[in-house]
Structures are given as C-alpha cells and as structure tokens.
Amino acid sequence: MHKLNEEQLFQAWNQDEHAERFSSWNQNSTGKLLKRCREFNEFQLFLSIAGSEDCQTMSDVGCASGGFYRFFHKTWPSLAYKGFDISETAIRVARSCNPTGDFQVYDGSFDSSPDIPADIVFSRDVAHHQKEPREFIANLYGAARRYLLLRVRTRETGATVFDPSKSGQYTNGHWVPFIVFNTSEMIDLFRSFSPAPKSITVWRHPDVLGGYNGRFLPKDLYYQETGTAQTAVLVEKGSDSDNQESVVTLEDHPETHQADWWYRLARKVVRR
C-alpha cells in the first residue's frame, strides 16, 4: 500500500460514488430514519443529552450528504444544526435532500472554519479516516463548548498503528487511512486536553474489523481476541476551574441494528 497525500484523500471523498453511498440515509422515511438511528450507540448517547438547557448549537463535522439532519431536527427541534464536509458533491446532495438544513463546504482546516465551534460537536466515522487522527480529535474537542460525540474504531489489545500505509481502506478508487485506536490510548488522549473532560463515556459494539470493505489492516485486527469494536464516545467538556479527574465509563454495548444485506453476504463469503 503506497503512501497517501492530501490530494488523494480529497479525491476519495469528493466523488459522486461517495455521495450516493451515504445518501441512502436520505431515502428513508423520517419514521424509519429515527428507528434506524436509535439502533446505534452514538445516537443513543445523543438522546441521553437531548434537551440540555445549556446547549443551543450543534456542528456535524463530516456530515457527508446530511443523512442525519432529520434525526437531530426531529429529536431536538430547538437545536441549531450546521453540517460540514470537505466534499462539494456531498454538500450539494445534502442541500438538495434537506433544504431547511444549513450545510457548508469546508477545507478540512478548523482555523479557516470559524462556524464550526458549537455547544455540541458530532463526528461519525470520520476520525479514523484522518492521516493525523489525534490532531483531528483535538481540534474537534477544542471546537466543542459542552459535548463531543464520536463514532470511531477501537481495539482492546495492542498499540494503535498510526501509519496509514499499514492500516488503510480502499474506497472509491483510492486508499484512505483506517486507524483503529487502542481504547486506553484514546482515553489518555482525551485526558490530556485542556480543560480536561468532566466525563468520558465509551460504548463498544464488538466487531472484527479486519477482512471486510476493502480494509488493509494489521493482522491482529482480524482476530476476535484483539477486542476490536465500532465505538461511540461521548465526552463532556470540563472547565478550567475543575480539579477533579475525568469520570470514565467503559462498557460493551452491542447494537441491535441489522447490516445491509450486501454487507452480511460479503461477511459470509469471506468466512468460507
């Protein structure tokens, strides 16, 4: 697997195929969308804070074609939503499917995107595709005034492999990073931020990550004993006056959703 550059990463996400793939969420009726979202841990964690009086704004970083806008709008109507993505194609689809939503193209730089900071920052399946995922998560945390909500990929044993040439995914004709965080390393990363988090809630949906969807991963990520998972993380931000250590809640929380039929079939074929 060859080394990646920023232009290749941009091309991978700025294609019609990428926008079409993620626009499937927009094709659901609102009722079905709400039902499907509630099956995932990150949306359950969102519902646990919905209605908080000290939160009025939300930024969805890496919103793709805006498939979750209706979920956020329906479950928390007073929350002012903004969606951001580097793909002009995806944002065009998002605006077409959700004309009442606020969707913006950004260049991947938080410094040049003053509209991103919000009370709640949400980023689903984005951090593990970054060349510098620690820096990206740090920027997300800095942009969040109260809560940061993520869906990432984690492992319980073995160190994080940050080299995208050894841990990647082939998608839309391009190689992109696929970085699987060691859970303890990820928690330590959050604890290193200033101000430190008040609480860190980690819900793991156990899942063997190696061998599917064009992933080229370290060999130990193909084994169940490595403890890989699709992981939702809710971080409540602390304040400079807080002197207490972050409260960490870590638990396995298997999700109830059914994968798309083509994904289930692919897994069966791989196991043969």
Set down the secondary structure blueprint.
Layout: H1 6-13, H2 16-22, H3 30-37, H4 41-49, E1 57-61, H5 69-75, E2 80-85, H6 88-97, E3 103-105, E4 118-124, H7 133-143, E5 144-155, E6 168-171, E7 174-177, E8 181-182, H8 183-191, E9 197-206, E10 215-216, E11 229-237, E12 247-252, H9 261-271
Parallel strand pairs: 1-2, 1-4, 2-3, 4-5, 5-8, 9-12
Antiparallel strand pairs: 5-11, 6-7, 6-10, 9-11
Helix pairs in contact: 2-6, 3-5
Question: Any overview of this molecule?
Answer:
The protein has 272 residues and is α/β, with parallel strands linked by helices. Helices cover 29% and strands 26% of the residues. It has nine helices and twelve strands. The longest helix has 11 residues, at 133-143. It is globular, with a radius of gyration of 18 Å. The two termini are 25 Å apart.
Secondary structure tally: strands: 12
| Structural class category | alpha/beta
Mean pLDDT: 90
- What is the CATH C level class, in words? Alpha Beta
Portion of residues within helices: 25-40%
Taking all Cα atoms into account, the compactness measure Rg is: 18 Å
Give the number of helices.
9
CATH superfamily (homologous) name: Vaccinia Virus protein VP39
Q: Using the 3D structure, state the CATH architecture.
A: 3-Layer(aba) Sandwich
The fraction of residues in strands falls at 25-35%
Largest sheet entry:
9 strands, mixed
Q: Could you say what the CATH topology is called?
A: Rossmann fold
Shape: globular
Q: What are the low-pLDDT stretches, counting only 5+ consecutive residues below 50?
A: none
What is the CA-CA span between the terminal residues?
25 Å
Order of SSEs, N→C? HHHHEHEHEEHEEEEHEEEEH
- When the domains are counted, the total is 1
